[in-house]
C-alpha cells in the first residue's frame, strides 16, 4: 500500500512539474492542481493511514485514527480550490488584455 501511494505521489508531482513548465496558462493551472493533489496525498500518507478505525476519540476505543492530517488536508483542499479559481480568473484577465494565453504574454505564432 505504501509503495502504491509513493508511486502515485511521484507520478502526480512529475506530471505537475511537467505541466507547470508549459508555456500556456491552462496547463500551468492544471499542473498546480496536480501538485496540490500530490501534497494532499503526501499529508495523508504522513498521517499514517488507518482503515476501519474511528477518527474521533471515544472512551471505549482502543485504536483511533489521527484527525489532524484529515483536518490539514481539508484545509489544503479549500485553499487549493481558492488558488485555482484565482489563477483561472487571472489567466482569463491576462488573455483578455494580451490576446494570448502564453504565460509571458507573447502572441502565439
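Q: What amino acid sequence fits the structure above?
A:
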Amino acid at each position: 500500500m505504501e509503495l502504491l501511494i509513493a508511486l502515485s505521489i511521484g507520478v502526480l508531482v512529475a506530471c505537475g512539474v511537467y505541466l507547470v513548465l508549459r508555456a500556456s496558462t491552462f496547463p500551468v493551472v492544471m499542473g498546480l492542481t496536480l501538485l496540490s493533489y500530490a501534497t494532499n496525498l503526501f499529508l495523508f500518507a504522513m498521517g499514517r493511514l488507518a482503515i476501519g478505525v474511528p477518527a474521533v476519540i471515544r472512551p471505549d476505543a482502543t485504536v483511533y485514527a489521527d484527525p489532524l492530517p484529515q483536518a490539514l488536508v481539508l484545509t489544503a483542499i479549500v485553499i487549493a480550490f481558492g488558488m485555482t479559481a484565482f489563477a483561472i480568473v487571472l489567466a482569463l484577465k491576462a488573455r483578455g488584455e494580451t490576446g494570448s494565453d502564453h504565460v509571458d504574454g507573447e502572441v502565439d505564432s
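Q: And what stands out in the fold?
A: The two ends are 47 Å apart (CA to CA).
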